[in-house]
Write a structure and sequence with these properties.
Elements: H1 2-6, H2 8-19, H3 27-43, H4 56-66, H5 68-88, E1 94-101, E2 105-116, H6 121-187, H7 193-228, H8 251-261, H9 263-283, E3 290-297, E4 304-311, H10 317-386, H11 392-427
Antiparallel strand pairs: 1-2, 2-3, 3-4
Helix pairs in contact: 3-5, 4-6, 5-6, 6-7, 6-9, 6-11, 8-10, 9-10, 10-11
Length: about 450
């Protein structure tokens, strides 16, 4: 009976361990979990539905909350937050059991051992995991920005393809009327059959180009669906109507904002903080770790308690030096990568803003000068042809010129909108409205 009573305390210890324990959260862990809960509340609830009358903003929000790449980046970030808890937690304690017996049980010694890392080591590891988690957040934010840009990048070519088709159909109608005019001139002897054939040739060429454009729409629609995160067997979405706003680029303000909030730069800044914490972890490797516990001989009378204690001896100085040097070089590399990325950002910003200004100038030229004059030129050529003053080729040249300017306008508008989207989302890093990201650190450029 006495030996049974002496075995009670190990049973109690096992019961307490089975019940589980919780550690103490570090400030970095608390902040990371708060941010994850804030974003998760936006990201995982009230998932949008892409209706038939969805706007462009609806399509963007649908993509950033449904695309597999964004979901994967969010899961990576969530996993990194859990890694903070793992990093700051003590190693699992160990139950030990020893038995000495020959013809009878001489000693029965259950025991308990716990590994205890050196002072401040766990805090340093938790800080490193927190810094890595912050970097993962900016990777998630970059995925959101990339998903939003992919929607706009695939949308505008699709939208303006439909605009090109409308232009071609209008020009086909015009060529049809020119053919009618050529037939009428031929019947009264003012033109030859060659004019009629020339009109038919131009009409057939334009009709073939229109069929090619209609066929290419399937490719652009597949790209648009992929950007939205829709599989090939899902129905084609309705192409939203485009809403264009004239944006006045304030280069110094936009560039300052880009250098402040660009997600790639923020990620690389977080990587520098990761390297800083890695240095602190390496510096603490010279601190010994400990193991403490004890065994109880329940067969002895009275019961014998045998405490045990051990300590690691970090004697390999070259190893400690190498760990510290590796961490320091990691920070040096991270700092250099950030500087290189800042240089690339400035160059990309200059290129994109030039492209926008160039498109603006081309659109201004086309809309205010070239297109009105091309329409007037076509009307003049058509009237002159009907009066026998010019040949039919003059009318065809005027028609080609008008068609070319109309397509140039569509191309310039497409280039401008795609470049603006890349500038706003990827370079400046302004998140889409209602995007599932931390809102406190976001700001928008002036328009």
């Amino acid at each position: 009976m006495k030996s049974i009573q002496q075995l009670i305390w190990p049973g109690v210890a096992v019961a307490l361990l089975a019940a589980g324990c919780s550690g103490i959260q570090t400030p970095g862990e608390k902040n990371a979990r708060h941010d994850l809960a804030q974003v998760g509340g936006q990201f995982q609830t009230n998932l949008p539905v892409l209706s038939a009358n969805a706007t462009m903003r609806d399509a963007v929000i649908f993509a950033v909350r449904n695309h597999p790449q964004v979901v994967a980046a969010y899961a990576d970030w969530a996993a990194s937050v859990e890694n903070i808890t793992i990093a700051r937690s003590l190693p699992d304690p160990k139950l030990t059991f020893e038995l000495y017996a020959d013809d009878a049980i001489r000693q029965l010694m259950p025991g308990f051992m716990a590994d205890i890392p050196g002072p401040t080591k766990l805090r340093a590891r938790a800080d490193a995991a927190s810094a890595e988690s912050r970097a993962k957040y900016y990777q998630f934010k970059s995925a959101v920005q990339q998903a939003a840009f992919a929607v706009e990048k695939s949308y505008y070519p699709l939208y303006f393809l439909d605009a090109k088709l409308d232009v071609n159909r209008q020009m086909l109608g015009l060529l049809g009327s020119l053919e009618v005019s050529a037939r009428a001139q031929n019947e009264v002897g003012r033109a030859t059959l060659q004019d009629v054939l020339q009109a038919q040739i131009e009409e057939e060429k334009l009709r073939t180009q229109t069929v090619d454009l209609e066929d290419s729409r399937h490719v652009l629609m597949a790209q648009f669906k992929a950007a939205l995160g829709l599989s090939g067997d899902q129905p084609n979405p309705t192409v939203p109507a485009a809403v264009f706003t004239e944006t006045n680029l304030d280069d110094p303000e936009w560039l300052a904002l880009a250098l402040k909030q660009n997600p790639r730069l923020k990620e690389m800044e977080a990587e520098i903080r990761v390297a800083d914490t890695a240095i602190r972890v390496a510096q603490k490797e010279k601190i010994p770790d400990f193991t403490a516990g004890g065994r109880v001989d329940v067969k002895a009378n009275p019961v014998l308690w045998n405490p045990q204690f051990s300590m690691t001896l970090p004697i390999w100085r070259d190893k400690l030096k190498a760990e510290l040097s590796a961490a320091q070089n990691g920070k040096r590399a991270a700092t250099a990568r950030l500087s290189a990325e800042q240089l690339n950002l400035v160059a990309d910003f200059a290129e994109k803003t030039y492209t926008v200004r160039e498109a603006n100038r081309e659109l201004l030229l086309l809309r205010e000068r070239l297109l009105p004059r091309a329409r007037q030129s076509l009307e003049v050529a058509r009237a002159a042809y009907l009066s026998g003053q010019v040949g039919f080729l003059n009318v065809i040249d005027a028609e080609r010129s008008l068609l070319g300017f109309q397509l140039d306008e569509i191309g310039a508008q497409t280039q401008r909108e795609v470049t603006l989207a890349e500038l706003r989302l990827i370079i400046v890093g302004t998140p889409p409205e209602k995007a599932p990201v931390l809102q406190a650190e976001n700001s928008k450029p002036a328009h």
